[in-house]
Amino acid sequence: PGLIKIRLKFLNDTEEVAMARPEDTVGVLKSKYFPGQESQMKLIYRGQLLQDQARTLRSLRITDNCVIHCHRSRGVTAAAPALPEPGPAGPTAPGLPLGGGTLMVPTVMVVLALGWYFRINYRQLFTAPATVSLIGVTVLVTFLAFGVYGQ
Question: For residue 114, what are the domain limits?
């Protein structure tokens, strides 16, 4: 009686059900469901980061069956090793999950390769400023690709 059901949703699309009282604080919710990892966990409700650990769920208008998104930051903790996020058991592929943002860099690389193909085979169509621009865009995309995939 008096408990509300909160759905904790993780980045890997898994969900966990949390039971809490409306008068519980954000800090109590973190310590109850993420013991030892409170400082690493970021809770997001309706696009707002729940930073104030003393705010109650009622004051944040968190009601029954609401969804709170959970993100574990990569902070260094000496006290406890980071536990893996809850998810389906079994082997998982390393790297980024397949999505629209993940496919953006390879798509841009293919477009750049086509640009270079046309520059080499149809050089009469490319002026000096166009060639310099192609070089600049290639360098920029290379740095962005290493930034995204080099983590």
Answer: 100-150
**What sign for the dihedral angle of Cα 79, 13, 95, 142?**
negative
Q: Is residue 82 part of a domain?
A: no
- Total number of domains constituting the chain: 2
Q: pLDDT digit string (tens) for 33-63?
A: 888 888 888 898 988 888 888 888 888 988 8
pLDDT number for residue 151? 57
Q: Tell me the residue ranges of DSSP E strands in 38-102.
A: 41-45, 48-49, 66-72
- Residue 26: exposure state from Cβ atoms within 10 A (0-12, 13-18, ≥19): buried
Q: Are 26 and 39 in contact (CB under 8 A)?
A: no
Strand partners, 56: 25
| Tokens representing residue 80 in the block | 């406890």
pLDDT tens per residue, range 61-111: 888 889 999 888 876 544 444 445 555 554 555 554 555 566 777 788 899
Dig out the tokens for 100 from the structure.
Answer: 């629209």
